[in-house]
Amino acid sequence: MSKEKSGVSRQLLTKEGAFTSDFEWPLTLLVDKGLDGAVTNKSRVGYVDGDKGRLIYQGYPVEVLAENADYEEVAYLLIFGKLPNEQEYVEFSQNLKANRKMPVEVVKIMDIIYDHEHSHPMSLLRTAVSVLGVLQKNVMDTSRENELRMGMHLIAILPTVIAALHRLRLGLKPVEPDLNLKHVENFLYMLHGKKPSARDARLLEISMILHADHGMNASTLTAVATSASLSDLYSSIVGAIGSLKGPLHGGANEVVLKEFLKIKSVDHVKEFVAEKAAKKEKIMGFGHRIYKTYDPRAAVLKKYASKLNDEVEMFKIAEVLDREVVAKYGSRGIYPNVDFYSGIIYRHLGFEINFFTTIFAAARVAGWLARILEYRAENRIFRPRDVYVGEFNKEFTVREKRP
Ligand code: CMC
Can you spell out the DSSP letters for 192-237? Predict the structure, then answer.
């Protein structure tokens, strides 16, 4: 589909590099905008079944993991390919706990550069990871053992950075991690300075499990492509955070909630959809490159969002919008994606809207690491091509003579 839509007509790249449109273009030179359909690797980490709306991590349906596992188990599963036994679980959790603390340099830098009006938390998170990479020793040791060591550091520390940013924004002091708490419980504890209810911790955990991996999406490709040049893990994660930030990717969750607030009440949903259609604008939180049916993650999040007594109005708007958009565009394969219902849950948990995508990053870092390690096992640098459609042999004019 994208081949016809690419906007570049079929042309042949001749031996001399010039083009002629008189020949059939070899298949390998078809422009695939967005690498639609390109396959980068064989993977065991996870599978996205876009027709049936299934998501699998290392053989397990994501819904089963969301119901039964915790985030530590899922991160272990993605990275090592099996669920941990008791001893492996304890060691893995201890390792994460030992990596939670944020270096004082990072807090200081964040405090200095934080401009409350203009700094987006995803930009600050990206910068914090970059600083962490500067402070790390042996970053260029590309052995699996060292990548794993640094990966554990990143999985452990992202919630600490996010919680600290949240508190700095409110003029509060960051809260030290509590080593008696599990990964997700501690995340909420550092955010609010008090132990979360078991229900809230579980809600965030389910969401983080659902966001932990998702095939060769834009941020994962960015991470893997950066790593494939044998660059360091921090650089890969900096790139991935930058990619995830965009509203076509993880940044959609933030825009979705802002749109719910703009819609204000269920009575305005129809009008909102009609307006978007008239302007030929996309509705955020819908559509997906792979899923042509309901995103299974959205279905789970919808179920949990529907139970939140403090978010009844938001949920009503979401549900009606879901119905309207599916009625209008469902036949074209446009359904709610993971970013549609997640924001309602994050708002309930006390996150500000512009922090939503940071939670996605804190969850996805396990998938980024798993995919990097998997690709690195049989590494090859990325080098797709583009098709030159410019001119040849243009005459050079000195600056003074240029029009
Ligand atoms: N609302 C209305 N129309 C849509 C939407 C939408 N949300 N998404 C796609 N379409 C239409 C689009 O206009 C195009 O129509 P046409 O063929 O007439 O030009 C057709 O569907 C194909 O869209 P596309 O943009 O070429 O599809 P893509 O595979 O390149 O993009 C997407 C996938 C997720 C970027 C896109 O669906 C989108 O922009 N959705 C809104 C943003 C969003 O919710 N992003 C989160 C994605 S899921 C989680 C994540 O990655 O973080």
Answer: HSSPPPHHHHHHHHHHHHHTS--SS-HHHHHHHHHHHTT--HHHHH
